[in-house]
Design goal:
Tetracycline Repressor, domain 2; 211 residues; 0% strand; homodimer; DNA-binding
DNA sequence: CCCAGCAATCTATCGCTGATAACTTATCAC
DNA sequence: GTGATAAGTTATCAGCGATAGATTGCTGGG
């Protein structure tokens, strides 16, 4: 008989990948609640129903868990941007829709967004090294998809500038600013969010596309 | 009876406020080298030439040191924006110059910028609470100066939109995106920095001002 | 059936962190 | 001198991420 109140009921063999998913589920929930930094490996272990060192059988470091979640999240961003792209000719409306996909992703998946673009190397020793730069690479894939979209509009003669890389980096920075501030400073006296996002995207579009 | 006479400062090696400045100097140097998170209170103490607990006679927490440095840095930002403002009529060139002041500040004082806008509440427990939101308030002062500038251009009929707050928040987000990415992702394959900054500012200007 | 082997999980612990408590010393007022 | 007080110290705390080594439970060969 296994009483749930017993302190150390050894958890059964975790069937490999399933146990790993359980840990990721727990980590995702906690990270989303409190942010990566505020969550300890002991908390993740407790919610996963295993001991804290057992985590290290599945992940080399705590950052690795965040990195894994981040990579997965970015896969969905690329997916969404790709979907938004195929079903639209290069028009102003579709351009803004593409930018909107990016903003929505960041607002909906703040912790994935944080790990990929807002966490700094210097902040925890060597995050980029520890995770092999995998979140960054996943983020770059999204960036390249973004650039491909920009190339379409530039080829159609709709852009103010000619260098697609310059346009893409500038637009990306513009979008990132809004997303990261909304994530990092939710308590700031923002005007109504929907209006702000719409106005921001419209401003970027006016700055990037002709008339 | 308690005499409210001013007490002469009984100072030892570190003459009161001087000691405090020594600590801030050490902290600033270390923070700039490695980033706030990567510096421990023991390192700061060692460079200050005192024991680690002695720091807590001058600062309630480590975050307090960062906050103090941040507030000072922002005072210089407001100063610079103010200076750039008084000597310019509302023209396109002067508008871009104002935006440029902000970007230059962020690039030159990355650690102050980080503490004010890139560090999150969730990242270290309760940074905002612990520091009484002082860095945030200092940042808001800069924001308000920025809004005042925007109001000038709006009053001169140069802006595309009418709501100064909306314009300011949008422009600010656009600028923040570039600054924070340059700070957080220096290893990203950016195009040449000067060209990027100029193009970014020009894009924001096109999006915000009429023709 | 039993038991060796092995992988998964445990308890215990390391060195580090930020922060606090309690003791000591230097400098002042009287 | 003699307390009082400010400023430093040493010793210590709880919590962190991560590691070492003992221990449990499953599994395949006899």
């Amino acid at each position: 008989m296994k009483s749930p109140t017993l302190r150390s009921p050894r958890k059964q063999k975790g069937h490999g990948a399933e146990r790993r998913e359980e840990i990721l589920d727990a980590a995702l929930a906690l990270f989303s609640e409190k942010g990566v930094h505020a969550v300890s490996t002991r908390q993740i272990a407790e919610r996963s129903g295993i001991s804290q060192p057992a985590l290290y059988a599945y992940f080399a470091t705590k950052d690795d868990m965040a990195a894994e979640l981040c990579v997965r999240a970015f896969a969905t961003l690329v997916e969404r941007m790709c979907a938004a792209r195929v079903r639209g000719a290069p028009t102003i409306e579709n351009f803004e829709r593409s930018l909107r996909v990016y903003v929505d992703f960041g607002v909906e998946r703040p912790n994935a967004y944080r790990v990929a673009f807002m966490i700094e190397k210097s902040e925890h020793g060597a995050f980029l090294e520890k995770t092999g730069g995998r979140p960054m690479i996943a983020g770059l894939e999204a960036f390249e998809m973004f650039r491909d979209i920009v190339v379409e509009y530039q080829a159609a003669g709709l852009t103010v500038l000619d260098d697609p890389l310059l346009i893409t980096q500038t637009l990306w920075a513009g979008l990132h600013g809004l997303v990261s501030l909304l994530i990092a400073r939710p308590e700031f006296p923002w005007i109504e969010r929907e209006a702000l996002i719409a106005a921001h995207i419209a401003m970027l579009r006016r700055g990037a596309l002709k008339a």
